[in-house]
Amino acid sequence: MFARALANDFARDVRAGLTRTGQKTLSCQYLYDDIGSTLFDAITFLPEYGLTRADSRLIQLHAAGIAKRLGTNVIVAELGSGSGSKTRPILEQLRRRQVVVYYPIDVSRSALERCVRELNPLGAVFPLESSYLAGLRQVAERRETGQTLLVLFLGSTIGNFEPEAAIDFLLAVRLCLLPGDALVLGTDLVKPTEQMLVAYDDPTGVTAAFNLNILGRINRELDADFDLRQFEHLARYDEQAQRIEMHLRSRVYQIVSIRKADVIVDFVPNETICTEASHKFRTEQVTELARLAGFRLEQQWIDCQWPFAENLLIAI
Ligand code: AVI
User: Fold this and answer.
1) Pairing state of beta strands 243-250 and 231-238?
2) pTM of the model
3) Which of 28, 31, 40, 238 has most ligand 1 atoms within 8 Å of its beta carbon, as the pocket-test mutant?
């Protein structure tokens, strides 16, 4: 039933995105089927994509400082935990002073299973296979008086939201919290354009494969006939919007039929589908984002190798 509803959402969103006037789009959430998630994991190892390593370094370096600020009765929830590998240093620090309770929230069951296997020895791990906000609401319902809730939203996933949606999302997170609760928010920073472009268009072609796979997924799940070789991966930087965009560019005039979405779409040569926007931040923009969402920025740590900020926000 659940899977069926999801498949219908997928068909509906694909049809809407590919038939809208102007720029054709596909929502970046659909990049992550099993193949897409595996390719994204590979991206995080690329020398050109320093984001994930910067995030991990900062957590490793400042886990003790984060834990110290929050007292001795902390429960942890992580939005989009994946296998929870970045989170380990925080749980290790908390374990020195209290019993660890950790709620990883993710839509991927296999990632959550890995997370439980790897982090269970550190404390009680309660996986929630859910969307971010639905999972966080469950955590908020289960919390006990006197506990401080620490929410982790790492990896600069906030950058994949449109700016207004990012504020709305953080406001919704804030509504699940009490004053004094904390949010650790990872934000990738603006850096030289060449460095950003190659991070999203690596010479090995892993990001290209990650991007093209969304068409493969539509073929597999929605009975479509995209010829993947007739599209090419493209990354461009929009300076005004401070974002890297990923596109798939049609090499030729072509017609594609997507049977389970009940639609036929045509592409002219060089027409693109926008599949992802990855917004980059300036440090002061994070302060403002925090304020608009009902938080104060308590501390901001910046990586010394890859411009990336880890931000400790306190709910006010
Ligand atoms: C998950 N997200 C933060 C990644 C990003 O950098 O925007 C997704 C990604 N797309 C291409 N490479 C990585």
Assistant:
1) antiparallel
2) 0.95
3) 40
